[in-house]
Give the backbone structure.
Amino acid sequence: MQRIATISDVAHLAGVSIATASKALNGKDQVRAETRQRVLEAAEQLSFRPNPAARSLLGGPTKTVGLLTSDSVGRFGIPVLLGAEDAFGAGEMAVLLCDARGDSIREQHYIRTLLARRVDGIIVVGESTDARPSITRDLGVPVVYAYGPSDDPDDVSFVPDDLEGSRTAIKHLVTLGRRRIAHVTGLATYQAARERAEGAAAALADAGLEPGPVFWGQWSQRWGRQAAAMVLHADPEVDAVFCGSDQIAAGFIEAARERGRRVPEDIAVVGYDNWEVLAAESRPPLTTIDPNLEVLGRTAAQHLFAAIDGRATPGVHRMPVQLVIRDST
Amino acid sequence: MQRIATISDVAHLAGVSIATASKALNGKDQVRAETRQRVLEAAEQLSFRPNPAARSLLGGPTKTVGLLTSDSVGRFGIPVLLGAEDAFGAGEMAVLLCDARGDSIREQHYIRTLLARRVDGIIVVGESTDARPSITRDLGVPVVYAYGPSDDPDDVSFVPDDLEGSRTAIKHLVTLGRRRIAHVTGLATYQAARERAEGAAAALADAGLEPGPVFWGQWSQRWGRQAAAMVLHADPEVDAVFCGSDQIAAGFIEAARERGRRVPEDIAVVGYDNWEVLAAESRPPLTTIDPNLEVLGRTAAQHLFAAIDGRATPGVHRMPVQLVIRDST
DNA sequence: TACATTTCCGAAAACCTTTTCAGTTTTTCG
DNA sequence: CGAAAAACTGAAAAGGTTTTCGGAAATGTA
């Protein structure tokens, strides 16, 4: 087992004092270029990494951030988390992972733990796009909310732009010449469902079409199948359906096919989420809206950096989403 | 924002020396009960949390572990990671998350970072059950491998027992009276595919049946559909198929149905992984093997605790898996 | 050469906690 | 009561890094 090199090992190898070594390594300008070079080489040779504990003892940054997920990291949390981890890794930050499992007691506990460890900032990853209680007040460290925004508009939040996403989906269908467009989505208790329906209605109005019916249900394949029956019965002439999730869309396609409708010839289907396993594997592969969650996570992380630097950017930021065109339209 | 209390604040408030306060707080037995009480109250009042940085500087445990994933995008890593996080959280451990994205340079970098931060131990979460190079040598901290074992048998590794899982699947089919059992699975370059095929063959032999054909392909739904055609063509009398993954099984079921075979009446199907979205939503819902990944992760974490305590348990430990019976058999 | 600047370097303090060791007080026992 | 043992307390050091400040060396000026 190799002993981990300390700065005094480096200083000794370079033949300078500890103080000089520190200054050389941190880019202070009181060191001759040639001396600095020697120190840097010594550090390289010993693969020296400053001990963050010692550093933070001085009151400096700990180069550590907390990643607090409110619910056991679901399907949506993961990419956000990865994007954030990616950005932090590049910034020499270490990420402390805390999964509160939807338990607010546990969340409080984790927040205290994170503060005791003197994290420089916290990212809160939500489980849905519904607003969640702010934890920012009096915390003493910057907080950025990703996916699920804070209920305090002065906090910094990043959410996917579902309004724009659903507009894009509808516009795509209209461009293809579809005129009778239904919308099948999840529970209206979800902000995501409400916003997607709202965006869809707005886009239909823009196109001079009357808003089609909205079918609210579960976020499941089963509901997609049920809804197919309802939609086709309610309006046999329907030529397109915009689904609030890929799961719903996958169920819808399946049931529509069984009823003899060809996709996309008779009825075009657009999903939401771009959940690869469903969207790419369904038959035909699904046109869908990709919420770019990894980019969202990365962006949130970068803004946490900024906030740590004192350049916070309050507000709920809507991140662009993307239309992924496959064979279902 | 209030200044964070230090132990000397506590000592001062309680009217004792710093040393006494420390001993009282850490349960050392050289403090009179009444003194201890006073200190504890003072700590409570100031909501004092010891600074882990200062603590770790002394060479004591940092109460921090590294969670190194080679590819956490993979859906297998996630539950393992959650289980581990769960166990650590309960043990007052903080988890440093590092995602090397399958890049060994990056992995080296992260390992150095973790060491510089003086983690007490590291869990390495693999992306597949194939053995991966050991990082344990000369590291100076205990390492436990979860899901993907180390290639060094002296390391501590935890993997799902695919051999037993596939035996269970076959036994289940045999119990149901099925006799002509095919096996459709992924690429033979995967240890998982090889072991599952091996276990299946062994179980068939145990039952006095001749091993059916094995179809190697991709881990995809598409391959499942293709394979259905091949299997049904090769042996029209086949009455069961054991698939190496739920994706394959889902594809198989779909294609079999299209060819007029009823599941499970004409042909029973068992999947592998218990990937909820596929297994529970397919029609009919899939009987499948659940590898219990979250338990595996938790167990690995607990054994890391043990290893940190000096009670390592070398070897590759095969963790039990579970048959989940649904409607496809 | 003598002096004033400028440049560079190193000693030491500070950060917070734990632990050791020596000193002080209390208790026990003959 | 006196001595020995036990119980308790506090000063100080250690751990790795950054920063401040004073001093030394090098350079420029008279």
Q: What stands out?
A: Chain A is about 40% helix and 15% strand. The radius of gyration of chain A is 26 Å. Residues 16-20, 23, 30-32, 35, 54, 56-60 of chain A lie near DNA strand C (CB under 10 Å from a C1').
